[in-house]
Amino acid sequence: MSRALRLHRTAAILTIVYLGCALLLLPAYGPTWDATLGEYGGGQRLLAYLETGDSAFLDVAASEPRLELKQPHPAFPSGGFGLHQISTLNSLASAVTNRVFWQELGWLDAMPAHHLAISLFVAALLYVLAVATSARAGPLAAASAAALLLTCPRFFAHQFNNLKDVPVACLYALALFATFVAMRSRKLLPWGVAGAVTGLTLASKANALFLPFHVLLVFGICRVIPATKNKLKVSPRGLGTATLGFLFAFVAASPDVWQAPIDAVLTRFGTIMEVGKQGGSAISSHGVEHVLWTTPLSVLALALLGPFHQKLKPEERVLLVAGALFPIGRTLLPGMVNFDGVRHFLEFFPFVGAAAGLGLAQTIQWTAAQRDAKWLRPSVLTLALAPSVWATASTHPNGVCYFNVLVGGLGGAQEREIPDATDYWANSYWQGLDWLNENAGQGDTILVPIAGFVARAAAPVKLREDLTVLEDGDLSFGRTTWVMYITRPGAYGPFVRVADRTLEPTHTIEVQGGTILKVLRLDPKDTFARDAFEVWRKRFDAGAAHAALGRWLAAHPDRAQEFALLLNALRTENADAALSRLREIWPEELRDVFDAIVWHAKTK
Prior knowledge:
By secondary structure, the protein is mainly alpha-helical.
C-alpha cells in the first residue's frame, strides 16, 4: 500500500469512528438559543425556496408561506432573525440533513437530524487534520490530535448543537490549510480550492473576514525567517483563481445574494459592523482569560510542545502557532465584542488540537529511548489523555459550562460572578423537560421565563402531550405551574429574581459544583405563588407600556435623554426627586402606563 493510501486510510478510520460516536451522542442535545431564533427555521425556508423558487420563502422571519414538515417536529418560532443575521450555509446544511435523515429516511429523530450537519463539518475537518498530522508524525499523532481536540469540553459540547460557531471554526481551519497548501504548491487548482473554501467560510459566518489578515501574518512571518523565506509563494494567477473560486462559492451558498446582490451584501455586512460598534474602544482580556480557564490544562501543556516536533518543517511551525494564536489575539483588538466564553472564536481549537497531538506524539517518541519504554509509552498516553477525557465525560452533555482548575471549576467561576459561568446556550432545557416528563402532574403548566422559546421549540418532540410550556404572554395561573430557568443572572427579570431568592428549587442540574438550571414549583393555593405570578403579569404590562413610551419618544426625540436619566435615577438615592419630576413632565396621553413604567424601572 502506498504512503498516500495509508494516510487516507488512517484519516478515514478516525472519521468513521467519530461519526459513529456522534450519532450515539446527538440525541442528548437539544435546540439552542440563537439557532432556535434563526438557523433551524431559516434553513428550512431557504431549502423551500430552492425547491419551489418562491421568493416569499426568503423572508425567513415570516410564518407564511407555511412549511410542510413531517411530524413530530420542533416548533421553531417565526419573527426571530432575518436572512442577513443567520448563517445561510450552516442553516441550509441543517435543513438538508433534517430533510434526508428525518423526513425522508426516518433514520434519526428531527432534532438530531438537524444537528447532524454540524457533525459533517467536524468530520471534514478531522479528515484533513488526520491526513496532515499523520503525514508529518504518523498515525499516533493523527489519533492524538483528533482525541485531544474532541475532548476539549467546550468544543466537544458545541459540536452537537451549535450551528453558528462550530461550522465556521471547521471551515476557517480548512481554508487556512488550503491556502497554505496553495502557497506551497504554486499550482492553480489548490488556489481555486482555497478560494472556494474561504467563500464557504464567509457564507458560514463573518469570522472569515479575518482570514486574509491571518494568511498575511503567516506569509509575512515566513518571508522574514531565513529558513522559510522562499517556501511560500503568491502569484497574480493564483490570486485570480482564488478570487474566482471565492466568488463562486460565496454566491452559491448565499441565496439572499441571488435576488439583490449589492443590497444583500451591504445589509449583511452593515449588520456586522453595527454589532462591532457595540464593543466601544476598550481592550478586553476576556478571550485570553477564557482560553486559559476553559481549555483542559493537559491540552494546553501538550500544545506548547507540538511546534517542537522534530519532523515539522519551519513553515509548518509558523502555520501551527499562528493558527492557534491569531484567533485568540484578535479578541484583544479594541472594541471587540466578547461574551459566552470562547464560542465566538472556536477556530483556534483545531490548531491547538493539532499541536497537542504532535506534542503527545513527540513525548512518546522521546520515551522510546528509555529502558522501560514498553511500559512507559502506554502510561504517558493514558496520563496525557485522561484529564481531558474525564473533563468531557464528567460535564456531558453540558460541556459549554466547563471551567478548569485555574478558577475552581464552574462552581468557582460562579463565585467569581463570571457572566458566562452557566448554561448560556440553554441546552439544559432539553434535560429539564425530561425531568418534568417524569415528575409533573397531569395537565400541569410550565413557565420558562428566560429564553422560553427554546423550551417551546423542543416541546413537540420532548414533552408529554398533557403538559404545556406557556407562551410569554400567557398570564393564566389556575393550576400547578413549574418554573424552569437557566441560572443566567444577567437575564433575570423581577419575577425570576423574586422567585430565585424566595423558593427552594424542586430540581436542579449541577455541573462541577455549580448550578446551571433550576425548576421551581408554584402551587396556585400558595399566597407567595400568586404574588410571584402577579410580578410576572406586571412584567408584561411593563412591556406594553414601554412599547407605547417608545413610540412617543420616537416622535419627540429631544425628550429621550431626560426620560432615560430620570428612569435610571429611580434606582438611586435620588428616586423621590426623579419620580416627582417624572410626574410633572409625563405626557397626558401616556398617563395609563405611568405606573407600569415606574415599577419596571425600579425593579429591572
